[in-house]
Amino acid sequence: MPRILQRIWEIARKKALLAAAVWTLCAAAVAAAAVTPNDTPWRIAVHEAAVITGDTVTLGEIAQPMGPMPDALWQKLSATELWPSPEADGRSMGVNRDKLEQALEHYLGDTAQLCLLPDRLVLRRGGTLVQQDELASLVVKTLTPRARALGGEVAFRDYRLPDKIFLKDSTDTLVVVPDDEKIQPGRVSFWFEERDLRGETVRKISASVFLDCFKDVMVAAEPVNRNTPLTPDMVTTRRINAAFLKGEPWDGMGGPWRVTRPVGENQPLYKDDLESLPLVRRGEAVELVFEGKFVTLRTMAQALDDAGPGEPVRVRNMQSQQEVYARVRDAHTVVVR
């Protein structure tokens, strides 16, 4: 029985050696193909920025494989040591495309032909690198809850962000801090704040994003002239991007109202465009009442101005043609005391 077990073990060992040999030949074939760009289905993409952890830059720190590269091959290539790392003083090292191409040819040989290079590579020793897409995600995550408080449908666009941010220490965090506690539709300015473990701000970087906010707004259903009383048939709603409103839109409440300036069809109705409909209008005939301590006199007068309830109004006595100031009691009566 022991001999049988030994025989089985020897057969298994030979199979394992054969498999290893086959794998080695395949890897060698792939490596040989690596120097022939037209026949190689993968590439090595070099980043625009990277953080270096050791004394020497390695290929795996500044690049990543693209396409069906065998894992074993990338594991070997990624460990390739290149040039010395930047000083650990927080300063960056910049390498332009020409110098990067020359350096990779020196360290990688023919494999450098398969590298996709950026216009410039920026390196920093230690810390953390936050890429632009990560910055955009952080902005959306932070500002979305505040934007939803505006109501309507909100969306962010036209990001004005740094290409990247190097955090000075790997334990530092990045937070988004808006300039104002309440954000409004339109261009929103904010700061990227780098904070250390104590919560203290290490530095601040300005940025902004455009906030769209689509909501239903009261608009004129037809052209409305100045001083025209606003009636329900003159008003409708329209879906409008609040980022482009020029004031606070009317919410449809209160009244009766009249417009203080001409409003075109489908144009928003702003609160500042409306005023209470006056009880007494200029040119209308009203009863002028003189209320004394022991006597009350009444006569007809003409209103010379518009006025609401309880407001003073200038009127002309139709008998004496004298102008006096009275206070509006109702739509037909003004009083002098």
Largest sheet: 5 strands, antiparallel
CATH topology of the largest domain: eubacterium ventriosum atcc fold
Cα shape: rod-shaped
Structural class of the secondary elements?
Answer: alpha+beta
Q: In sequence order, what are the helices and strands, one letter per element?
A: HEEEHEHEEHEEEHEEEEEEEEEEEEE
The share of residues in helices is 10-25%
Distance between the termini: 130 Å
Question: β content, as a range?
Answer: 35-45%
Tally of distinct domains: 4
Based on CA atoms alone, the radius of gyration comes out at 39 Å
Please state the second-level CATH architecture of the largest domain.
Sandwich
Number of helices: 5
Give a topology summary.
Layout: H1 2-33, E1 43-46, E2 49-52, E3 56-58, H2 59-62, E4 63-66, H3 71-78, E5 81-84, E6 92-96, H4 97-108, E7 115-116, E8 120-125, E9 128-131, H5 132-148, E10 153-160, E11 164-167, E12 173-178, E13 186-195, E14 201-220, E15 235-241, E16 257-259, E17 274-276, E18 285-291, E19 296-303, E20 312-317, E21 323-330, E22 333-336
Parallel strand pairs: 1-7, 2-8, 18-22
Antiparallel strand pairs: 1-4, 3-5, 6-8, 9-11, 10-14, 12-13, 13-14, 14-15, 16-17, 18-19, 19-20, 20-21, 21-22
Explain the overall architecture.
Residues 1-33 form the signal peptide. This is Flagella basal body P-ring formation protein FlgA. InterPro entries: Flagellar_FlgA, SAF, SAF_FlgA. With 337 residues, the protein is α+β, with helices and mostly antiparallel strands. It has 4 domains: 34-126, eubacterium ventriosum atcc fold (Sandwich), CATH 2.60.480; 130-214, no CATH class; 218-276, Type Iii Antifreeze Protein Isoform Hplc 12 (Alpha-Beta Complex); 285-336, SH3 type barrels (Roll). Helix content is 22%, strand content 39%. The chain contains 5 helices and 22 strands. It has helices at residues 2-33, 59-62, 71-78, 97-108, 132-148, and strands at 43-46, 49-52, 56-58, 63-66, 81-84, 92-96, 115-116, 120-125, 128-131, 153-160, 164-167, 173-178, 186-195, 201-220, 235-241, 257-259, 274-276, 285-291, 296-303, 312-317, 323-330, 333-336. Strands 10, 12, 13, 14 and 15 form a 5-stranded antiparallel beta sheet that branches. Strands 18-19-20-21-22 form a 5-stranded mixed β-barrel. The longest helix is centred in the N-terminal third of the chain and has 32 residues, at 2-33. The protein is rod-shaped, with a radius of gyration of 39 Å. The model is unreliable at 15-34 (pLDDT under 50).
